[in-house]
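User: Please go through the entry that follows and flag anything odd:
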Amino acid sequence: MNIERLKAQIREHEGFRNKAYPDTLGNWTIGVGHLIKLPDEEYLINIRLKDYEVEHIFNTDLNQAIDDARKFVDEKLIHEEAFEIIVDMAFNLGLTRLSQFKKFQQALINNNYEKASEEMLDSRWAKQLPYRSKKLADKMRSINA
């Protein structure tokens, strides 16, 4: 796994903001796509984080997404870039919602990246995030096993 490439990919999809903002679904978010869970982190809504604070939160969230992706599929069984795509999806969806992608998961286990790409686009997630899902699905489709 190329962590720097993965971080750049997630930053491209999530953006980077030092101040809280409502995401596309109206959820309060800060930094690099960090969901603010109220009321525990309510104070984050009215402050401006320093870049190093955003980076710390991002690294924590990224490590959680990597752990979630490893629970979803064994990274040793699939192409490195396919695993990075799964981490990106886990970062956005979390393990609970990612785990609903059963046909996608099976396609990955079979190293059928074309089918995995189709399954990514056949989802509510793809309808909610058309740019991100299409970009990741195109990347998945281009992987040669």
Q: What stands out?
A: The first helix runs from residue 3 to 14.
